[in-house]
Design a protein that fits this description.
alpha/beta; Nucleotidyltransferase, domain 5; 2 domains; globular; pyrophosphatase activity; ATPase_NBD; GppA/Ppx_hydrolase; Ppx/GppA phosphatase family protein; Ppx_GppA_N
Length: 316
């Protein structure tokens, strides 16, 4: 038996997954997430702030303690959009080397390309879905970027693209009012449309049979759509949302202030001020899939890049 750990540090959150791998079978041991907003202000300043680095270090130190207690043998930590953009990223990577090195000597975070991020997210997201439901279009909506990847279960990737749009990026760059003004929403819609035009050109969206949404914006939308009183990953994983109902929900999220949204127990306090930006991205994605592939529902997956990393580690 090998105990494996995957850590994903994005623009908005840092997440940990620990699993056992025995004879090709993977068993989940521990999964957790903290919103640290590492990418706060990076779009404007080009640097990680001291406060953001401190929040991230504090969370990762806690994760290292958990990994040590759980006797992790292998760990891989990936850093995505914000860490590709920040001028002082060396400070971030030195911190990860110090903390992860306590668990596995020599371990530290690594920057991965948008293409690898998409492939890992795809592998994790479709793991529990019937192969006959493919081809799949997996969309991993993050804080700074959104990955699109189309492919078949266990087969080759047909195309992928990392679009420079995410819930934090839109909130900081365009939707600065609380709630966003009609003009800001119009500008955000236009920006998303520009990004999706590049997705349309690079990814065979039209071949999609099943749209799969993963990461916090999508899972939160599922919890809201189901009227859950508390966040329930078992109810969310594999849930299917209809576009027509989802458009009503995204419109409501865009209309309300972060204070109003934070009252809802299934919206994480650290997501309340950026989920409207995520809702604008989701609206664009629904329009793209409806037009290009005549798809009008999405399946929500609680599995994503963390599960893809674990699968890769287990296969080494």
């Amino acid at each position: 038996m090998t105990r494996l750990a995957a850590v994903d540090c994005g623009t908005n959150s840092i997440r940990l997954l620990i699993c056992d791998s025995t004879d090709g079978k993977i068993k989940e041991i521990h999964r957790t997430m903290e919103i640290v907003r590492l990418g706060e202000g990076v779009d404007e300043t080009g640097h990680f702030s001291d406060a953001a680095l401190a929040r991230t270090a504090n969370a990762l130190e806690g994760y290292a303690t958990i990994m040590d207690i759980e006797r992790v043998n292998k760990v891989r930590m990936v850093a995505t959009s914000a860490s590709r953009d920040a001028a002082n990223k060396d400070e971030f990577f030195a911190m990860t080397a110090e903390l992860l090195g306590r668990v596995v000597p020599g371990a530290q975070a690594e920057i991965i390309s948008g293409e690898e991020e998409a492939a890992l997210s795809f592998k994790g997201a479709v793991a529990d879905l019937p192969p006959e439901d493919g081809p799949f279009c997996v969309v991993d909506l993050g804080g700074g970027s959104t990955e699109f990847v189309v492919g078949s279960h266990g087969g080759p990737i047909s195309g992928s693209y990392s679009a420079q749009m995410g819930c934090v990026r839109l909130s900081e760059r365009i939707m600065r009012s609380n709630p966003a003004t009609a003009e800001e929403v119009t500008q955000a819609d236009a920006y998303v449309a520009e990004q999706l035009a590049r997705v349309r050109a690079d990814v065979p969206i039209g071949s999609t049979r099943t749209l799969v949404g993963c990461a916090g914006t999508f899972t939160t939308l599922s919890a809201l759509a189901q009227g859950l009183e508390t966040y329930d990953s078992h109810a969310i994983h594999g849930s299917v949302l209809r576009f027509d109902a989802l458009r009503v929900l995204t419109a409501q999220l865009i209309r309300e202030s972060s204070e109003q949204l934070s009252i809802n127990p299934v919206i994480h306090p650290g997501r309340a001020d950026v989920i409207a930006g995520g809702a604008v991205v989701v609206n664009g994605i629904m329009a793209l899939l409806a037009e290009e592939a005549d798809v009008h529902t999405m399946t929500i997956s609680e599995k994503d890049i963390l599960d893809g990393i674990i699968a890769e580690l287990a296969g080494e």
